[in-house]
Design a protein that fits this description.
Blueprint: H1 3-25, H2 34-50, E1 74-76, E2 86-87, H3 90-104, E3 115-122, E4 125-132, E5 135-141, E6 147-149, H4 152-155, E7 171-179, H5 181-193, H6 202-210, H7 215-218, E8 223-230, H8 240-249, E9 259-262, H9 263-273, E10 285-292, H10 295-301, E11 311-315, E12 320-332, E13 337-349, E14 352-358, H11 362-368, E15 371-372, E16 375-381, E17 385-391, E18 401-402, E19 416-418, E20 425-427, H12 433-444, H13 456-464, H14 479-482, H15 497-513, H16 516-523, H17 530-540, H18 543-548, H19 551-559, H20 566-577, H21 579-590, E21 612-616, H22 623-632, E22 636-638, E23 647-650, H23 656-664, E24 668-670, H24 672-679
Parallel strand pairs: 2-11, 21-22, 21-23, 23-24
Antiparallel strand pairs: 1-6, 3-9, 3-10, 4-5, 4-7, 7-8, 10-11, 12-13, 12-16, 13-14, 13-20, 15-18, 16-17, 19-20
Helix pairs in contact: 1-2, 12-13, 12-16, 16-17, 19-20
Bound molecules: 2-(butylsulfanyl)adenosine.
């Protein structure tokens, strides 16, 4: 291809990929598969690698800036971003309607009702975007309305935000950055699995994400944007509804849930219709916004000191309820964290009956000064876990009693401790029965080893009867041990022969089919959730290689994984170095628990496809280069030799014992030259 043809191809690819991003992130209706997208993306990247001077700012490869910035410069805007007046009831909405009619009186034709656009009020972070000749040049937060912060670098990472428009226009648009409910819940599920504190709500998390100084970090957050206002819209289109349609034509994401209504009946009807529509929105909306459609009418109505007179936010009734705190239960987690749980008089909260709510930790109990018998407000956080958010102290009768902070573990009686820098109280006794059964239940749960039949009740029972102390003991269970003929031996309450057989079969199945990442999740190492577990498992290839690695190798290998980092590496190191845990790992292996991690997909076809290759010793080139070559040839780079390792590339100074061990495992041993030969196509 001539340079001109390549250049044309390059520009086509930039445009095509932007279009595919729009179809995927805005329309939610992609027209190509992920693999097809990847192919186009790779072609673009290859062209860019050969022609660095062609790279345009709107190329999809240029979304994420390669380095952190030091601060967010201030942006002073000519048209301030105002907030909206609120209506909390139909009555308040009607009062707004009347004000509008009065304000337009004499200007509208007699009997002509005002027309409104009704849009969801997205509960996110307000932003303004500027496009110059079709290119995205500046994005800023609302700030105090007049002065915001330049968060362009972070906003560029949002793939629903087009870097260039379909027409070379210079415009400013306003909208909201948010996270979808599903994405937010997934993040909190991961954090729960990793034993980390949960984010309180999607809005705070979104705000925090936009204020990250490192755009590479922001790029990892699943943020989206929807735009709802064209600044100075009147100079482009006569109606707001028309400006929204135009924004959509330009490729900007706008809400698909917009309705156009005239007159009071229609407005009230549109608002009422949302009562059952709200739950189906993929993002949090705290209400609706009703806006006058005609820009000319907006101009006539004008502004108060704080709000436009032509729009109102109708707030949905909040997901809060009042009830009485009847007690505080003490919960002991699998890692020994001892936390308070509020026991409530049953109360309706957005369609469910709530009897328990989170009180987070004992500091929160002190901060709220909550007492047994208090009237409290409970709220659903991110629509998942209800929590106590407020105490109505004015309603106290004097009969309320303070909540006692425990000093001993209610399960095992050990003294509770508070670790330096932690808010949680802890039971440090590893033999604590509650910790044991929770750890067991966690080990067996669906996201981890997935042992059928081993749920909460059975886990409790197995620990109580002394049949199982830790995860390794599970693999010693037999039908005879579960229901012995000899009546004196411990047996599991009300367990029939059939369920004992099923359980033992489930355990065997789990042993045979679990992957290494599932085992890692099940161990419940702090900070190691599903994502980290999968990355670590892929890096080591098998439980065996993981255990065979030295502490230093393990730490270095984990730190080197993209997106994992030192905190997790340290947590894993601490876990493995603990003698109790080391014993557990050894006992698991003795019982035949030795899972491998399936290669995610034969990444590429090549001379090393499907082969696990380990590299050790002194080599002539950086190890990362060799890793790249191995992966490019379709091989999987593993960091330690185990049964499943196919090839060991041995450097200059590798000891004889290591080579012998590898040969004994059936691993092919080659030197660097040998590897070079294997890398040749057909090698
Ligand atoms: S219009 C002057 N439309 O709610 C009118 N705002 O309390 C400008 N918001 O600051 C706002 N969804 O951050 C408008 N469809 C929508 C909205 C919306 C969410 C936010 C916005 C604004 C706040 C007002």
């Amino acid at each position: 291809m001539s340079d001109d043809a390549v250049r044309n191809r390059y520009q086509t690819l930039v445009r095509e990929l932007a279009e595919h991003d729009r179809r995927y992130y805005v329309e939610m209706a992609p027209t190509v598969s992920d693999a097809q997208y990847d192919l186009l993306y790779r072609e673009l990247r290859d062209i860019e690698a050969a022609h660095l001077d062609w790279i345009t700012a709107d190329s999809p490869t240029q979304r994420v800036a390669p380095a952190p910035i030091s601060s967010f410069p201030k942006v002073v805007r000519a048209v301030p971003m105002l907030s909206l007046d609120n209506a909390y009831s139909e009555g308040e909405l009607a009062a707004f309607y009347d004000r509008v009619v009065k304000g337009l009186h004499g200007e509208t034709i007699e009997g002509d009702d005002p027309t409104f656009v009704v849009e969801p009020k997205i509960d996110g972070i307000g932003i303004e975007l500027q496009y110059e000749r079709g290119r995205f040049v500046l994005g800023a937060t609302r700030g105090d309305g007049r002065v915001g912060e330049d968060i362009t670098a972070n906003l560029r990472t949002l793939r629903s935000l087009p870097l260039s428009l379909r027409e070379p226009v210079t415009i400013a648009v306003r909208g909201e950055v948010f996270m979808q409910k599903e994405d937010f819940a997934a993040i909190n599920r991961e954090r729960a699995l990793a034993g980390e504190e949960l984010w309180k709500n999607a809005r705070n998390f979104t705000g925090g994400s936009l204020k990250l100084l490192d755009p590479r970090e922001c790029a990892k957050r699943p943020l989206r944007v929807i735009l709802y206002e064209l600044v100075g819209g009147e100079s482009h289109r006569p109606l707001h509804s028309a400006s929204l349609a135009w924004m959509r034509e330009l490729g900007l994401p706008t809400s698909s849930m917009v309705s156009l209504v005239s007159g009071w009946q229609a407005l009230a009807g549109a608002v009422a219709a949302w009562a059952d529509r709200k739950a189906s929105l993929p993002y949090e909306a705290d209400g609706l916004v009703a806006k006058i459609d005609s820009f000319a009418h907006r101009r006539l109505l004008g502004f108060t000191a704080k709000f436009p007179r032509w729009a109102i936010a109708y707030k949905f009734p909040a997901l809060r309820s009042q009830t009485r705190l009847v007690g505080v239960e003490i919960n002991i987690g699998r890692t020994g964290a001892v936390t308070p749980v509020a026991m409530l008089d049953p109360v309706e909260l957005s369609g469910t009956t709530v009897k328990r709510a989170s009180l987070f930790n004992w500091d929160e109990v002190a901060r709220l000064d909550v007492r047994i018998g208090d009237q409290v407000i409970v709220e659903k956080a991110g629509e998942i876990i209800p929590q106590v958010v407020e105490v109505l102290t004015a309603l106290r009768t004097g009969a309320e009693t303070p909540v006692a902070v425990p000093d001993r573990c209610p399960s095992c009686g050990s003294e509770l401790l508070r670790r330096e820098g932690e808010v949680a109280l802890r039971c440090a006794n590893r033999a604590c029965p509650d910790q044991r059964w929770k750890a067991l239940q966690f080990f067996a749960h669906r996201g981890a080893m997935n042992i059928d039949g081993l749920g909460e009740v059975l886990a409790q029972e197995l620990v109580r009867k002394g049949l199982v102390e830790d995860a390794a003991d599970i693999f010693d269970l037999t039908v005879d041990r579960l229901i012995p003929a000899d009546d004196a031996a411990p047996r599991v309450e009300r367990m029939a022969k059939k369920s004992a057989e099923n359980l033992v079969a489930g355990i065997t199945r789990a042993k045979q089919t679990a992957t290494f990442s599932r085992l890692l999740i099940g161990l419940g190492i702090p900070h190691v959730g599903a994502v980290a577990a999968r990355a670590i498992a892929a890096r080591f290839g098998s439980f065996e290689s993981f255990c065979a690695a030295s502490a230093d190798e393990r730490r270095a290998a984990i730190t080197a994984i993209d997106g994992v980092g030192p905190v997790i590496a340290e947590a894993v190191a601490l876990y493995v170095e603990n003698p109790d845990n080391a014993r557990l790992l050894a006992r698991l292996r003795e019982r035949g628990v030795s899972p491998v991690e399936p290669v995610a997909r034969p990444a590429r076809d090549g001379p090393l496809s499907g082969k696990r290759v380990c590299v050790t010793g002194k080599l002539s080139r950086p190890r990362s280069d060799i890793q790249k070559d191995i992966e490019a040839a379709g091989g999987q780079f593993v960091t330690a030799v185990g049964k499943t390792t196919d090839i060991l590339v041995a450097g200059a100074d590798v000891g004889k014992s290591k080579l012998d061990a590898a040969r004994k495992l059936g691993t092919t041993v080659v030197d660097e030259d040998g590897l070079a030969k294997l890398l040749q196509p057909g090698g």
